Amino acid sequence: MDEFKFINSIKQKHYKQSSMKKGIGDDAAVFRQPYLDTVTAVDTFVENIHFSRETMSPFHVGYRLLAANISDMAAMGALPAYYMISIVVPAHWSEEELQDIYKGMQKIASSYNMDLIGGDTVSGKELVISVTIIGFVEQNKARYRSAMQENDILFVTGTLGDASAGLKLLLDQNKEITKDNDYLINRHRMPAPRVAFARELQSLNRVALNDVSDGISSEANELAEASNLTVYIDFDQLPMHKALQQFHPEHREEFMLAGGEDFELIGSVSIDDWEKVKEAAEKTDTKVKQIGYVTSKRATNGTVFLTKDKKVVRLYKNGYTHRS
Predict the structure, then answer these.
(1) DSSP string, 198-235
(2) Which of 309, 306, 310 is closest to 320 using CA atoms?
(3) Whether the Cβ atoms of residue 233 and residue 293 lie closer than 8 Å to each other
(4) Do 266 and 156 meet the contact criterion of CB atoms below 8 Å apart?
């Protein structure tokens, strides 16, 4: 594969972002964005660890990888603008398959008017893709996990466990093709980051957000640790899509608490601002539900508890619960 020929083939003909000064073609890209704070994140994905051709086409690989980074922008309250791709290419991936990866990225990027502004391509033994994303947010309006406060309402968007259930269906060669199964598989392959909802919360002075990439057990613990507060979650209030009813209750619990990759948002807000959160959800056609509350108990601060079957158990990052 000719590296320069490949770079030219994925180069955008024009840029959507007005802040772009110089894109692909020089040693570095240049953009200028006054009066806004810049937010950036990077993730690295390795074949057969973070994705597999057994369950996804190259198009879906690209789509989901960039979606994961866009979800990070949503969790920060930022609007994604640019992305860069560094890719290690093994011999068993064809140029056509690589083009399809970029097509998947371009598909979701177009939904947010994002521009591809650079990256790097080298040869290696396994496919590795690093995605760097750049976004912008109004000054001092970036959302931090540490913003959670005592007596906050804990909420989550969408439904939980869909993506991991979809992965299980993809790995089950005897799966039955149904409308519900197609929904779950699509949630795994083509997640929908909650950028619009997060942006609609800009009027709030304070809201803590975290994206559900590793399951709410992990994300809730990250919020609790960052804020040094205690979080209580009511299992019966966790939103579940009807398509999960086909699975055993233990599997449903694992999917919802620790499945991850739903790329929903979990967050907390003051009781006074809860109505504004619901208004933002309605305006952006986003489901949102209260799932718990935040308190302060010195002995347990930085931890999460789950109420289930009239019992209160400790919820750890891996989702498994143990009696407190």
Answers:
(1) HHTTTT-S--EEEE-SS-HHHHHHHHHHHHT-EEEEEG
(2) 306
(3) no
(4) yes
H/E stretch holding 265: strand 265-269
Q: Rounded CA gap, 253 and 320, in Å?
A: 10
Q: Where in the chain is the domain with CATH 3.90.650.10?
A: 145-323
* Distance separating alpha carbons of residues 291 and 235, to the nearest angstrom: 8
Please give the C-alpha separations between residue 164 and each of 24, 126, 218, in angstroms, as whole numbers: 36, 24, 15
Neighbours of 281 (CB within 10 A): 20
Q: Which pair of structure tokens corresponds to residue 170?
A: 């993809």
**Tokens representing 13?**
């003909």
For residue 120, the one-letter residue type is D
Q: What is the CATH number of domain 145-323?
A: 3.90.650.10
Contact 77, 142 (CB under 8 A): yes
The closest alpha carbon to 85, from 140, 155, 6, belongs to 6
Distance of CA 46 to the CA centre of its chain: 17
Name the residue with tokens 């392959």: 189
- pTM for this prediction: 0.90
Query: Taking a C-beta distance cutoff of 8 angstroms, is the pair 82, 66 a contact?
Result: no
Token output for 298 = 């010195």
92 contact partners, CB below 8 Å, separation of at least 6: none
43, 86 in Cβ contact below 8 A? no
Mean pLDDT by 10 residues, the chain (324 residues): 58 74 73 88 93 93 97 97 94 93 96 92 93 95 96 98 94 78 95 98 97 95 96 97 94 93 97 98 98 92 94 82 35
Q: What is the largest CA-CA distance in the chain?
A: 63
Q: Domain 3-138, what fold?
A: 60s Ribosomal Protein L30; Chain: A; (3.30.1330)
Domain with CATH 3.30.1330.10 in the chain: 3-138
